[in-house]
């Protein structure tokens, strides 16, 4: 059984201690909903959990191995979606996702034939309600449509750990349900998710554990 374990984390930004001696265990088949006011340190915590930034103290392990000692192994098992969509506005949805797949070294049937990549990504974009917009530079898509392109990554890469920073931003109510159901399915399949959101998760997301970060002065 996989687990992501953060222990004794301390994070300081501009002389403010956002959190100290913070510990969290995320187990396979678990959804953690990280809550807290603006500026509490949720994004800072998620970035530490992904290895994108380092805590002043403490460490993070995945399956008992410190994530900094074998980052490539961890990254194979991780999808991190930050609160920005991380799309190149000049590229289409298809090309953004192709680039992302290549960047993640995904070597499955998708990349053995160029036509298969397009086919698979087209199918995902169709599920995300983006039919007819696949080839449009994403800067011409609405905020919610851009978010849907970004979220398509969850359908394209198989990874145990999902770290999601405000993934519901700009989504309409149908998009929120689509994502919540996807999250519920991932957890039912033995995945693990930690997500932030300023809106409460609905029952569509399935059972979840709330973790609160207080704002510290
Ligand atoms: N690289 C940085 N340099 C300096 N200060 C930073 C940096 N990153 C974050 N901070 C500060 O740390 C605090 C926490 O930021 P963070 O983005 O983690 O909060 P958050 O809980 O995700 O907030 P929100 O709900 O608004 O997204 C903020 O006061 C922010 O200004």
TrEMBL record:
<keyword id="KW-1278">Translocase</keyword>
<dbReference type="GO" id="GO:0016887">
    <property type="term" value="F:ATP hydrolysis activity"/>
</dbReference>
<dbReference type="GO" id="GO:0022857">
    <property type="term" value="F:transmembrane transporter activity"/>
</dbReference>
<dbReference type="GO" id="GO:0017004">
    <property type="term" value="P:cytochrome complex assembly"/>
</dbReference>
<dbReference type="InterPro" id="IPR005895">
    <property type="entry name" value="ABC_transptr_haem_export_CcmA"/>
</dbReference>
<dbReference type="Pfam" id="PF00005">
    <property type="entry name" value="ABC_tran"/>
</dbReference>
<dbReference type="InterPro" id="IPR027417">
    <property type="entry name" value="P-loop_NTPase"/>
</dbReference>
<keyword id="KW-0067">ATP-binding</keyword>
<keyword id="KW-0201">Cytochrome c-type biogenesis</keyword>
<keyword id="KW-0472">Membrane</keyword>
<protein>
    <submittedName>
        <fullName>ATP binding protein of heme exporter A</fullName>
    </submittedName>
</protein>
<feature type="domain" description="ABC transporter">
    <location>
        <begin position="4"/>
        <end position="213"/>
    </location>
</feature>
<keyword id="KW-0547">Nucleotide-binding</keyword>
<dbReference type="InterPro" id="IPR017871">
    <property type="entry name" value="ABC_transporter-like_CS"/>
</dbReference>
<dbReference type="InterPro" id="IPR003593">
    <property type="entry name" value="AAA+_ATPase"/>
</dbReference>
<dbReference type="GO" id="GO:0005524">
    <property type="term" value="F:ATP binding"/>
</dbReference>
<keyword id="KW-0813">Transport</keyword>
<dbReference type="InterPro" id="IPR003439">
    <property type="entry name" value="ABC_transporter-like_ATP-bd"/>
</dbReference>
